[in-house]
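Quick one:
INPUT:
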């Protein structure tokens, strides 16, 4: 389970808006000079993100909560969003190239059709999985009385 801590900023029915702050470990990483993730983290460092999550623990506004998502769900979502469209694009490109006798125009058309089809198939598969790919509020982090927040 991958977890993140955040603060509930609004409650809407059985869902809650949770604000998290992205923290980066780039400053302590030995590969920071040649890593593209560092550039991405630098562009968004310290920025707050708000996520709508199912509020299964009845957290209230102002509560500090722990969010979680299953590793398998995250991997599955990555496959649906990235790998499936790319694989279908390559397959359709090769098919367009071979069926046309080597014409590049049909290979390019196959690439576009395969990529669009991959996104549509991935979206359809994701919508049938209900909320398997959504993070959840796992628990409310109780702060001991007398502790400074």
């Amino acid at each position: 389970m991958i977890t993140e801590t955040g603060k509930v900023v609004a409650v809407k029915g059985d869902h809650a808006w949770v604000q998290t702050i992205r923290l980066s470990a780039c400053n302590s990483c030995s590969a920071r000079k040649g890593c593209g993730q560092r550039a991405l983290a630098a562009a968004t460092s310290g920025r707050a993100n708000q996520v709508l999550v199912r509020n299964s623990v009845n957290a209230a506004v102002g509560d500090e909560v722990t969010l979680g998502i299953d590793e398998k769900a995250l991997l599955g979502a990555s496959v649906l969003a990235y790998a499936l469209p790319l694989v279908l694009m390559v397959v359709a490109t090769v098919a367009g190239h071979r069926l046309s006798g080597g014409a590049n125009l049909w290979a390019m058309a196959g690439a576009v059709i395969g990529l669009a089809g991959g996104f549509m198939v991935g979206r359809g598969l994701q919508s049938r999985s209900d909320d398997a790919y959504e993070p959840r509020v796992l628990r409310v982090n109780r702060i001991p009385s007398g502790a400074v927040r």
